[in-house]
Amino acid sequence: MAGRALQLSARPRRRLLPVGLALMLAALGAAGAHAAGERKMSAHDFSFTSIDGQPLPLKSYAGKAVLVVNTASFCGYTPQYQALEAVWRKYQARGLVVLGVPSNDFGEQEPGSATQIKQFCETNYQIDFPLTDKQHVVGAAAHPFYKWIAAERGEGGAPRWNFHKYLIGPDGSLAGAWPSRVTPDSAEVTKAIEGTLGR
């Protein structure tokens, strides 16, 4: 009898082990599928509005490099507009886009309306590369693109002043960043642009 009781008590264990194992494998499989389905965010997940009021999704630049610069009309670095236009003209045919993002965040040096900003750029620097509408680039109200930048590089990677530069690769990844003092046509920036376009 004792032997039979032992056999009976052992039977549920033989049944439960495969069921438990199956459940565990199913859970692991679901977790793996979830992880495989996750995709790291890129610049192509964000969208601006152009200075003319039209949608400007960054995914429209997929396959191209994009030099994103927060700009201002009344800053000591404003003459960098000239270098930005020169870089745009030099590399445009190879797949570079220069994107200006006017911002009044630093020193209130971009107080004008979209119309005034566009007129200033075209009249003084003959700018024809794309411009967004005026945006916040730092703080709680920052555009989601700049919040992503801060998440990618840490708070120290956010713009510190006007004309901070970010290079976005053709795949939407962050390929480089330079502070205001580094000019767009410097060897440091153009080497990075050429390297990105050469991929």
Can you give a write-up of this model?
The strands form 2 sheets. The chain has a 4-stranded mixed sheet with strand order 4-3-5-6, covered by helices on one side. A two-stranded antiparallel ribbon has the order 1-2. It contains 5 helices and 6 strands, in the order αβββαβααββα. The chain is α+β, with helices and mostly antiparallel strands and 199 residues long. The chain folds into 2 domains: 1-38; 43-197, Glutaredoxin (3-Layer(aba) Sandwich). It is 41% helix and 15% strand. The termini are far apart. Helix 2 links the parallel strand 3 (65-71) and strand 4.
Walk me through the topology.
Elements: H1 2-37, E1 47-49, E2 55-57, E3 65-71, H2 80-91, E4 96-102, H3 114-125, H4 144-153, E5 165-168, E6 174-178, H5 187-197
Parallel strand pairs: 3-4
Antiparallel strand pairs: 1-2, 3-5, 5-6
